[in-house]
Amino acid sequence: MLAHEVKPAPGSRRQSKRVGRGTGSGHGTYSGRGIKGHKARTGGNTPPRFEGGQNPIVRMSPQKRGFTNIFKWEYEIVNVGQLNVFAKDSQVTPQEMRAAGLVKAARRPVKVLADGELNTPLVVRAQKFSAAARQKIEAAGGQAVEEVAFAPARQRR
Asked: Domain for residue 104, yes or no?
């Protein structure tokens, strides 16, 4: 078999419809385009977003507002009430919180919030404390020690 003998599979190629070749052809005069109007003209196709001349939804909707802060810190949240699982007078670090299942992502800094009550005095070490959480920890006879937050190059959300 030579290159000039290669033919496409039967039925895979069709001849294009010849329009505008006289009235006897069945596709003469208006060539299947009807009489006048936008679609009868050359290049008369509309884009998918065209809505018949009314104000498009893209123009009606407001533009995107604000911006995304790429330097935003996302904290792992631990509530004061969850710290009751630790023994009295123990040091509670983010590593211990992770081992106890209170913190999921080890890479994120930890913030302690004031939901719940603390029954035992603890030395809690975290990157951030809310003012009310610090007050509750100290009221229970413990300490809230703020550690320096590590600075990853860029957090993934």
From this structure: yes
